[in-house]
Structure formats: C-alpha cells, structure tokens
Design brief:
It contains six helices and eleven strands. An eight-stranded mixed β-sheet has the order 1-2-3-4-5-6-8-7, sandwiched between helices. Strands 9-11-10 form a three-stranded antiparallel β-sheet. The longest helix is centred in the middle third of the chain and has 15 residues. It is globular, with a radius of gyration of 18 Å.
Length: 256
C-alpha cells in the first residue's frame, strides 16, 4: 500500500500474533482502491450467514464520505492495509447517521458513528478492532461529539462483545427490513466514557438483569424499559443489562 501526504499516523506497535509492525493511520480518498479491495477480501472470506454482518459500500459512498470531511481509520502492516473502520460525523447539512433503526434525541453534530469495521482474516486475533474503537472514541472526543453509536447484527458476537469491552452498551434492538437481520444499537456518551472506560464498577448500584444471548424478546423488553446491555458472560452466554445510573432511583426490572 502506498502512503500519501494526507495520511496521518496516530499509533504504531507490533502485532500480538506475529510480532510484525503495524501503524494506525487516517485514510483519505487516495486510498479508496485499497479500502474497496480489503472490503471485498473480507466479504469473500465469510460464510453465507456471516456475509449479512458486512454491508459492502460502493466507491460512490466513499467519494461522498471523504468529500463531507469524514475519515476512515486504517491499520497498515508491512505496507498492507489489514483493517479499517468508517467514522461518520453527521452535520446539519448531511444529517443521516446510517443507523437503520435507532431513535436518539440528539443533534446531528453531536453524534459519531462507527461503521464498516473489518479485519482481514489473516490478521484476526491481534485486537485490531479494539485499537480502531479506541482511535474512533479519541477522534470523537477531540471533535466534541457527545454520542457514540454503532450498529451490529445480533449474530455478530465478536463485534458487539468488543464494543461492550470498550464501554458501549446495547441501547436498543432494531430490524433491517432489507436483509431481515436483527440488530443491536450500541451506544455510549463519549466524554464520560473517555474519563473512565468501562470497568464494570460503573453500574454497581444499578438494578441488574441477566438474559440469555438468544432471548432477543426479553432483551427488547429491557431496553424498552431503559436498561442498557453492559457486559457479556461468555461462560453462561448471558448478557448483563443494568438500569441507567443517572436515574434518581433505579427502575425495577420489567417482567420477562
């Protein structure tokens, strides 16, 4: 992958699995061919069911994305683009967030959205998604964005569990009428999250309910009552839902 003067390197390190060097960079319109190539390579590596996890974006999307002042985070190793994430910052002129089924009382210029998170199959297991989420939140905080959003298919355990570990919670559940997939709407307030990333202690005083991963109806009941999915217990396949900490009095969990 060739570099250009508009790219900005934000972090370097070595890959956990191979020890090869990596660099986190902000990609530009110059890099669209490499962005599309990686997207196609990752899509082709997925099973038919897994391909619903990735909504492929066309060149026209990236042309508009960069023209509106947005960026793409890339991770480069030994000259090769191996991971990428799309950061969308809506504005009053371009208010669409790209979220399929998410209601949030916020102005467009208060929102930051992470889309199209992909890692080449040869480079999985190196915490590259975690690095990109970290960079996204840092960018959002620096630009004064208040609300962080991401949309993940409920079956894409790896992605939504990483978002949870990084401090985002399941705000609500949605449905994509185009492909029929069920969605988790991930959410966090940016500034408080940057002050103290998720440790598990932030919801100690809240009412807590544990629900099986497969029980989407109970999860919808909880999120509709204001509960937020905050943690995943892999051993028993439970998602932990907690009442909002801001509430003067934690609401009682609804019957599920």
């Amino acid at each position: 992958m060739t570099t250009n003067d508009n790219q900005k390197s934000t972090k370097t390190g070595t890959l956990k699995k191979t020890g090869a060097p990596y660099e986190i960079v902000t990609l530009t319109a110059h890099d669209i061919p490499q962005i599309l190539k990686l997207q196609d390579e990752v899509f082709d590596s997925l099973t038919a069911d897994e391909q619903t996890y990735l909504l492929r974006k066309e060149k026209a999307f990236f042309d508009g994305h960069f023209a509106h002042g947005n960026i793409v985070i890339g991770i480069v190793s030994e000259g090769r683009l191996v991971a990428q994430s799309v950061i969308l910052h809506p504005t009053a002129a371009h208010p669409k967030s790209g979220m399929t089924d998410m209601l949030l009382d916020a102005k467009p210029d208060e929102v930051t959205v992470l889309q199209g998170v992909i890692v080449h199959p040869d480079f999985r297991g190196n915490k590259l998604m975690t690095f990109m989420v970290d960079e996204w939140l840092a960018v959002a905080n620096a630009e004064g964005r208040k609300h962080a959003l991401a949309e993940v298919t409920t079956g894409n355990f790896f992605s939504w569990s990483v978002f949870m570990k990084e401090g985002l919670g399941i705000h609500s559940l949605g449905h994509d009428d185009i492909d029929g997939s069920e969605l988790y709407n991930m959410y966090a307030e940016v500034a408080p999250l940057m002050e103290k990333r998720l440790t598990g202690a932030f919801n100690e005083a809240a009412a807590v309910v544990k629900v099986q991963v497969c029980d989407l109806e109970s999860q919808k009941t909880l999120t509709n009552a204001g509960f937020l999915g905050v943690a995943f217990e892999a051993a028993n396949q439970n998602i932990v839902f907690a009442a909002p900490k801001k509430a003067a009095k934690a609401p009682k969990p609804p019957k599920i």
